């Protein structure tokens, strides 16, 4: 495990939560609209909810 400086850890932390937030918003918006844009997104959202 390479040593990471506080700047790198902060970047990884922000990047991780940005990805989680984007996925959550996409899944929530898709569910609120009541239709699925693609089957791939549905499988991803199902995997997230099961996990």
Terminal Cα span: 27 Å
The rounded Rg comes to: 15 Å
SS-based structural class? Answer: mainly alpha
What composes the largest sheet?
A: none
DSSP strand count: 0
Overall pLDDT, averaged?
76
State the order of secondary-structure elements, H for helix, E for strand.
Answer: HH
Give unreliable regions as ranges: none
Beta-strand level of the residues, as a percent range? under 5%
**Apparent shape:** elongated
Number of domains: 1
How many alpha or pi helices? 2
Helix content: over 70%
GO biological process, one term: proton motive force-driven ATP synthesis
Pfam families: ATP-synt_8
Subcellular location: Mitochondrion membrane
GO molecular function: proton transmembrane transporter activity
Core attributes:
51 residues, mainly alpha, elongated
Show the helix and strand layout.
Blueprint (H helix, E strand, L loop, with lengths): L5 H28 L5 H12 L1
Structure characterization notes:
This protein has 51 residues and is mainly α. The radius of gyration is 15 Å and the shape is elongated. It has helices at residues 6-33, 39-50. The longest helix has 28 residues, at 6-33. It is built from two helices and no strands. The model has no long low-confidence stretch (mean pLDDT 76). It has one domain.
């Amino acid at each position: 495990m390479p040593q990471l400086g506080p700047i790198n850890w902060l970047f990884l932390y922000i990047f991780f939560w940005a990805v989680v937030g984007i996925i959550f918003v996409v899944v929530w918006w898709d569910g609120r609209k009541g239709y699925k844009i693609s089957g791939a997104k549905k499988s991803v959202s199902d995997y997230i909810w099961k996990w």
